[in-house]
Amino acid sequence: MEKMPEIRNYTFNFGPQHPAAHGVLRLILEVDGETIVTADPHVGLLHRATEKLAESKPYNQNIGYMDRLDYVSMMCNEHGYVLAIEKLLGIAPPVRAQYIRVMFDEITRILNHLLWLGSHGLDIGAMTMFLYAFREREDLLDCYEAVSGTRMHATYYRPGGVYRDLPAKMPQYKVSKWHDAKQVAEMNENRQGSLLDFIWSFTERFPKRVDEYESLLTENRIWKQRTVGIGVIGPEQAIAMGLTGPMLRGSGVEWDLRKKQPYEVYDQLDFAIPVGVTGDCYDRYLVRVDEMRQSNHIIRQCVQWLRNNPGPVMTDNHKVAPPTRVNMKEDMEAMIHHFKLMSEGYCLPEGEAYAAIEHPKGEFGVYLVSDGANKPYRLKIRAAGFSHLAALETLVKGHMISDVVAVLSSLDIVFGEIDR
Amino acid sequence: MEGLLLVGWIVVKIIAIILVLLLSVAYITFLERKVISYMQCRIGPNRIGPLGLLQPIADVIKLLNKEIIFPEASNRYLFVIAPIISLGTALAAWAVIPFDKTAVLADINAGVLFVLALSSLGVYGILIAGWASNSKYAMFGALRAAAQSISYEISMGFALVGVMMAAGSLNFQTIVQAQAGGIWHWYWLPLFPLFIVYWISGIAETNRAPFDVAEGESELVAGFHVEYSGAVFALFFLAEYANMVLISALLAVMFMGGWLSPFQGVPYFESLFAFVPGFVWLLIKLSFFLFCYLWFRATFPRYRYDQIMRLGWKVLLPVTIVWIVVVALAVQFKMGPWFV
Fold first, then answer.
1. For A393-406, what is the HEC assignment?
2. Which of A93, A220, A324, B148 has the smallest number of Cβ neighbours within 10 A?
3. Yes or no, beta carbons of A401 and B218 under 8 Å apart
4. Which residues does A contribute to its contact with B (CB < 8 Å)?
5. What residues of chain A lie within 8 A of the CB of B41, using their CB?
6. Nearest 5°: CA angle at B129, between B124 and B132?
7. CA-to-CA distance for A247 and A241, rounded, in angstroms?
8. What is the DSSP string of A231-276?
């Protein structure tokens, strides 16, 4: 009898140059027909040695590197790092600064989830979602720009507070070759007051926009067919694999550092933790969409508080934070402080600290070891995406090629933080 | 001499059809970009020429100037032949489409069969392209396209069977004439399930969103034509859009009364719009379906490959079979007002 031909599985590269690889993921897929047998993620193509670089820079100069880790939720990364320093120093920022941090953490969460929603939609084929999400992101990035001067890599949080108070006047558009006076007036309509007024007008509008997104996707039959029951992970396994954030909550585990280990002023704010039931892509989608609504709710509370409670936004401990410019010109001691801070920075007491925050993607932790110098002895970053990506194979096994794309984007990974 | 003149006249007609078709394809790409842009709160191309109207011309020039890259491991003959098959079949099917009462290139009796045959042949272009590229992504795209086209061909064919039975003919002119009598006499009403099935299958057949798994941007990068560039890619591109127009035209002809006026039998309006030539009505109906193509693309997520198969075999096919029986009974018992 003639020998049967041997049928081998197909192995191919998914990425690093693939439209749905979310950056530079190289995924080696072995498929039987269209069914995934193994999925082997290769990481490291975006390695920039952030942790090593941090060992040779004074503490404050590393804040900018944190922005570049997960480059879609910039201020949250800063927050984790700044919290670790404050923990070692044993200082706390003024309450107003804490509210500002919380507000910008939540703005960042919306920014991140909007980008996630857009790219998740795009990966599943609902491309209009992407542009709708970017329309809203535009306003939030303007908030970033108003406080820090840049739209992405803000370097706004500092140990001891935030860089400066919220601007009293929102920057406005000017007439240009492309926009005449009438259009500009329309664009500046909600920019007449302060930054807080601008954020307030955003929070008024945003829930309706989320409703619009949901009307496009939530009950859409194709959307449900593509996400319900795809990439299921149970609560026990999710905990065992180190999943955090919406990935864990999607599986029904009510774990949120903002509630369980409150930092800043989260214990004084009212918000809920949305959780899923089955732990599939659809539940993770619902959790994230609901988180956007909750964030919106938190931002509104912060705006109200910030409107009524002016005050300092930076600690008055000038061993850590530079004195004001005016003081520096008149006060000898202030000038010395300024000189020391700008040249050498400040030293942390010997010891180690771990600070974690509820990052939009999960638990973002910074483990800091200090030998008493003005720069970290070792900085270890615990990025949520890393363990999420490690769970990919478990999630996609037995599914089809198209599901890999859906699951991968539902992980919400960004290679800036995974490869670091 | 007489014969030569006739051949010449036919050639002129062919050239006219192809020129108009290619030009409209070019502007459909422009329209697609514009329509989807406005649906997505952006402006779309507006730099080249007034209102961006020269954009498709610029695109064509760009594509023709680009180098055609032949992958080393590809089969060159098939690699070049594939897009030609795709475009050839997409254009040839236009021979039997009636544009007006008398304006049809080939008024043959087996028009429906001819179109069905050519649209089935079109899948060879995709299949060969995917195989000849010798690329894994292209292969996946080709396999998906082949399976999808074959499955949808069946429900599409059954939907057409309903039309044939209702009109009692395979000739497109006869089919259009059989629908005479105003908007309620067109076949979309008595054959409503078949109309919907044909519409959905048509979208699947042309590999357009939400059934675009064969080229699935976010999964297979570009699917079967991932290795194509320059002019050969342009041929695939033209074929895809020509097929879209073709399916829209077929929908208009078979279910929407083709070149018939929608005001037939409506007092006052009928005489008011009597001056409008038939092909304008066809164009309006066709444009509506084309617009829907773009609308769907901007709205729907993409199906997964196996879900498309399930939809084709388990939903659309049974629907057509049931409705064929209904149509058969209606025709047999001469149910008015359509089948008298």
1. HHHHCCCEHHHHHH
2. A324
3. no
4. 10, 12, 18-20, 34, 121-128, 131-132, 135, 216-217, 220, 222-223, 225-226, 400-405
5. 131-132, 135
6. 115
7. 11
8. S---HHHHHHTT--THHHHTTT----HHHHS--TTGGGS-------
**Amino acid found at B133:** S
Length of chain A: 420
Straight-line distance from the first to the last Cα atom of chain B, in angstroms, rounded to the nearest whole number: 46
Task: Mark residue B52 as left, alpha or beta (left: phi above 0; alpha: psi -120 to 50; beta: remaining).
Answer: left
pLDDT of residue A300: 92
Residues 6+ apart with CB under 8 A from B46: B52
Residue B119's pLDDT band, with cuts at 50, 70 and 90, is confident
Give the closest-approach CA distance of A192 to chain B in angstroms: 24
Q: Which amino acid is at A21?
A: A
Which chain B residues are closer than 8 Å to A404 by Cβ?
219
- Whether B193 and B257 have beta carbons less than 8 Å apart is answered as no
The structure tokens listed for A40 are 């082997």
Residues of B in contact with A401 (CB under 8 A): 140, 219-220, 305
Query: Would strands A157-158 and A161-162 be described as parallel, antiparallel, or unpaired?
Result: antiparallel
- Nearest residue of A to residue B302 by CA position? A125
For chain A, give the longest Cα–Cα distance: 100
| CB-CB under 8 Å, B213 with A126 | no
Provide the CB-side half-sphere exposure for B124 (13 A, CA): 13
Residue type, B106: A
Compute the CA torsion angle B255, B256, B257, B261 (nearest 10 deg). Answer: 170
Ramachandran angles phi, psi of A379, nearest 5°:
-125, 120
**Amino acid identity for residue A82 in this structure:** V
Block means of pLDDT (10 residues each) for chain A, 420 residues, are: 75 81 85 86 88 90 89 90 91 91 92 92 87 90 90 89 88 86 87 89 91 88 89 89 90 88 88 89 92 92 91 87 86 90 88 91 91 90 89 88 88 87
Query: Containing H/E element for A26?
Result: strand A26-32
Contact (CB, 8 A) for B13 and B105: yes
* Residue whose structure tokens are 């064969």: B214
Q: Which residue bears the tokens 């939720």?
A: A73
Place of tokens 């009928």: B270
The closest CB to that of B39, out of A12, A18, A128, belongs to A128
Report which residue type is found at B201. Answer: S
Contact A345, A339 (CB under 8 A): no
Closest C-alpha among A285, A112, A109, A294 to residue A213: A285
- The pLDDT value recorded for residue B310 is 87
At A271, is the secondary structure helix, strand, or coil? Answer: coil
Task: For residue range B35-65, list pLDDT tens digits in order.
Answer: 999 988 888 888 888 888 898 889 889 988 9
**In chain B, what residues touch A225 (CB-CB under 8 Å)?**
303-304, 307
Interchain CB distance below 8 Å, B216 and A128: no
**A367-398 exposure pattern, b = at least 16 Cβ within 10 A, e = fewer:** bbbbeeebbbeebebbbbbbbbbebbeebbee
